[in-house]
Give the backbone structure.
Amino acid sequence: MLRSLMIVIAGLCLTASAVAQTQPIQWISNVNQGVSKAKRDGLPIMFYVAGSSKGDDLKDAQQAAFRDPLVGSLARARFVTIRISRSTQNKQILEQLGAPTEFGNYLLFATPRMEMIGSIPPGQVADAGTLARQMTAMFRKFRKQLFERELKPKLESKETPVNEITKALKTIEKYLILEADESVAGLLKNGGLSANVKKQVYGTLATLSTSKSVKALLEAAPSDKLAQRSLGRCTPGGAEELLPALDSENDDEFVIAYEAMVKICKLGKKKSRGFWNGKNERLIYDELDRVDQGVRKASQRWKEKYEAYR
C-alpha cells in the first residue's frame, strides 16, 4: 500500500536544522544501467553533465547544493540520478536530447524513454533553494506529460480493463498528479465500479486533496461510509476546501464536513450531532468559529511547509 501523502511529502521537506547528517546524491555512472533502472521504476532521469573544471567556486557550490537535505530527498524520491561525462559516446546522447555539448556542470532531465524534459543551468544548480524548486518543476512537467499521454486516456475510456484503471489510479497517487483530479472524480459517475476500484478512487482523491477532489468526496460521503472515511484523510489544505460546507443547509453534509475538518486538523474532540440541535446559539457560533480559525491556521502551516514541493 502506498504511503500517505503527508509521510511522503514530509520526507521531502526536511530542513538543515532538523537533520544532523546529510546524504549526498548517489550518482549512477553507467548510463545504460541508469536508464534501465528508470524504466523499471517509472521515474524520470536527472543527469549531471560533468564539466572539465576542478576545484573552482562554482563546482564547490554545486557539490554543497547536492548535499542539501531537501535536494537530496527530492533526488532520491523522484529521480534516477546519473552522472554523465562529455565523452564522444555521451555527446551523441546529449545531442539526441537536444542538450548542450560545449559545456558541462548542468543538470539535464529526461523521461525513462529518453525524451527531453528540460535542464537547469550551472548557476542555478549551485543554489540549493533554486535547485530544489527547479527539480520540483521538472518533476511536475514529467508527471503532467505522463498523465496527458498515458493515464488520462485510460481513465476516460469505457474500454479500459479494471486492472488498468486501478494501476493508473495508483500511479496518479504515487506521483501526486494534481491535474488528474477531474478525471479521477469522473470515475464515480460510472455506476458499475467495483468496491475495490471505488476504494482506490476515494483514496486517490484524498491524496490529491484539490478543490475538485474534496468536492467529489463530500458529495459521495452522505451515502458512502468509505467516501466519508477517505474525506477524513485529506490534507489540511483539503480541509480548508470544506469550510463553505459549514454554511450548508444539508445537515448530513454539514456534520460530515465538520467532523472531517476536526479530524484532519487535530482540533480536539468533536461535538455530537445533538449539539447542533441545541438552543444555545452562542455555543454553536463559538464552535463554528473555533473550527474555522483552526482549519485556516492548520492549512496555512501545511501550505508553508509542503505546497511548494507537491
